[in-house]
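Suppose you are handed a protein chain with no further information: no name, no annotation, nothing but its sequence. What can you learn? This example shows the usual starting point.
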Amino acid sequence: MKDESKSKKQLIEELNVLRQQIVQRSIRPSCATHCHSQNKIENDNSNAQLLQSDEQLTNLLMSLPVITYAAKPSGDFSTLYVSEGVQQVTGYTPNDFISQPKFWVSHIHPNDVKGVLAGMAKLFKTGYFKSEYRFKIKDGSYRWIGDVIRLIKDQNGEDDHLAGIWEDITERKLLEAKLRQSSKMEALGTLAGGIAHDFNNILAAILGNADMGRKLTTGQDKICNHFDNILHSADRAASLVKQILAFSRMESTVLKPTNLSVLIGEALKIVASTTPANITIKQQLLADCPTILADATQIYQIILNLCNNAYHAMEDITGELSITLSMEQSLDRPLGYLNLTVKDNGCGISKADQEWIFDPYFTTKEVGKGTGLGLAVVFGLVEQHEGKISMLSNVGQGTSISITFPVSDMVEVDESGEEVKSNEQKNNELGVKRILIVEDELAVLHLHQAFFLELGYLVTICENGKQALALFEAEPQRFDLVLTDQAMPLMTGKQLAKKMLSIRPNLPIVMTTGYSDVISEEQAKAIGICQYLVKPVALDYLQQQIERCLLG
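A reasonable first move is to predict its three-dimensional structure. Written in structure tokens, the prediction is:
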């Protein structure tokens, strides 16, 4: 078996045995009673064996997956010996370490050197010291080193030298850092799931009442402006919760035929409201835009992340943020592609950083201004949409990021995935319908009641699932549609829907939820629920979904 295949422990044990053999052979006296020729033969054999052991020791040191060294036990711990492998890790030769007395100490990272030297002081009490620190290598960067040192004493019990083993642990430290960051994001996802339901219920009430107030004050500009501000702020809050849930992989990706121009326009309204006055936003979108298969929430996230990065790149200048959407023809795809470009004239990105810019946890921003996740998330979302992303950037000249999405051959649709119909068509088809609303959040319950009454529906409300089920069991044909929350006391929306559908299988049911790890959209559809909506739901959108379910 080759030495390379042996464990580190086995190699070190063999190294110690060889060292002992060499020491024993070097100090073994020749026998005075033997004849001169016999002494010469023994000495020659001993020397040959010594050379052979020395060669074995050298080969063994070269095969070790670590670096061995010896150093002085005092002063700056100058290097006495270091194995050849040090050059592969640091770029420096063994002679660089040996010829310069303060070489080792001077190359330890300034933030680590104090702790290392403090540990070295303990070495002389315990005889053993283990540490991890950053060491500056020849190209100016730092590598993480795992260092195990033992104090070796001479025959008189005096400190003789330090013997140590170095190991390059840079990859392990990077993986540990990523694991810590991953744990943080997992904790964020858990926290987001825990608060999303209650928070989205609150937002639903804010959005709904503000929307109703806006409609009742049409023409009164001063009052309408206040309602518009409330709606805008609540929309931003709702978008933030959706982004957190989407990033935490708690929302499933649902690709539907989507008008990309419309989505970009809506996202840019949010961008414009948060962009400082020193930055001008220019947009050039397609008026007659073909559809792509997309998840609306994830497209929002792509736009907001790209624009956020551009904003940070132009914080200190008079900047221009340009967003364009254009058609791109291609021989490999007859329908072509949509090309989205987000461009800024900010600080730009160096060539060295461009190699890593889409990697998770990499960031060029200051501490507190970036997690290194934005572009990594964008990259992943683009891949989920079967798109491609590219970047052009020069330091001091800005950055341009382009994304291509394959065009779909499906017809233009609204957010629900259905062809757009006029209100007149919908009203003619619907007639007067009866809706049962089940919601334990009273603010949301009364909001929905008022909204659908104003639209001409006959509305019955219940504050919990058991009350609603009793009404339904008494008259199963009384309601044309049930609108229910998921998380409720006494009976969940899932339980209520199952019982109702067991009595009347074709009953249209629309479920809303602030957040639920009990039932997903796919599971809801499998039960027979017509539509699954995540709160807060804009009233106009809720109306569209209910009309869609009623039209069947």
